[in-house]
Design a protein that fits this description.
alpha/beta; Rossmann fold; 8 helices; globular; 44% helix; 15% strand; 7-stranded parallel beta sheet
């Protein structure tokens, strides 16, 4: 009888996952996907009330979760929180900040705010998570919600693009350094996704027309479009994937 290969499991049963930015939008969707796949999910963000509501919804489904108040801009508190916790098998960072506008109008305050969350905060979150895994000799998967704008430019998005290009660079370098420890580091790069935060952009007919003209599939993204990628990169199904960017951009960057 011919022996056939077995598909690696997409299940996350027994895994501890930390989702930062879990209170809304893509972060909430990714937390839901990981919990549905069997992970025990720690829900982290600044908005504790929203996290508590989400944890209640998870409990109603029979999913395990806990709430961790966390401000990614406060590196010292992030380092302390992760040092005090058991190592997380999966860390998914969906926290982000956008300060869009013409490059000529960028202020140092706008620059520092975006970089403080999108790049500096992300960097030290992963450093803290990897340190705990290495100390315990455990493998892990670290996932950033980056952006298609980490691979292209965009009008009125110089600061945002700079921060996301930085995330892509740190991902490759961390993947090289931590690969010998079996810690994988990857990004998910969505196109424009319809959320409460982005709704004003989509409500502008000219902006929506421009977005839809760039997306080859002819529609805007939904948070559900990201959920499968999160489970894949968190699971053993992606055991040989590191230092990579998963484009979920409807073909935007194919040009």
């Amino acid at each position: 009888m011919m022996e056939l290969p077995a598909t690696p499991s997409f299940r996350l049963t027994g895994k501890r996952a930390l989702v930062v930015g879990a209170s809304s939008g893509i972060g909430l969707a990714c937390a839901t996907a990981l919990a549905e796949a069997g992970a025990d999910v720690t829900l982290a963000a600044r908005r504790v009330e929203a996290l508590t509501d989400l944890a209640g919804a998870f409990a109603a489904r029979g999913w395990a979760s806990s709430v961790l108040p966390l401000d990614l801009a406060d590196v010292t508190s992030v380092q302390g929180a992760l040092a005090a916790a058991e190592p997380f098998d999966v860390v998914l960072n969906a926290a982000g900040l956008a300060r869009h506008g013409p490059a000529l109008d960028t202020t140092p305050e706008d620059f520092d705010a975006a970089m403080g969350i999108n790049l500096r905060g992300a960097y030290f979150l992963f450093q803290s998570a990897a340190r705990r895994l290495i100390d315990r000799g455990k493998p892990g998967s670290l996932i950033s919600i980056s952006s298609q704008m980490g691979h292209v430019g965009g009008q009125d998005r110089a600061v945002y693009c700079a921060s996301k290009h930085g995330v892509e660079g740190m991902t490759k370098a961390m993947a090289i350094e931590w690969g010998p420890h079996q810690i994988r580091v990857n990004t998910i790069c969505p196109t424009f996704i319809l959320t409460d935060l982005t709704r004003p952009t989509f409500d502008d007919p000219a902006k929506r027309a421009w977005i839809e003209s760039k997306i080859k599939l002819g529609r805007v993204g939904k948070v559900e479009d990201i959920m499968g990628a999160a489970v894949y990169l968190a699971s053993d199904a992606s055991a040989m994937v590191t230092g990579s960017a998963m484009m979920i951009d409807g073909g935007w960057t194919a040009d």
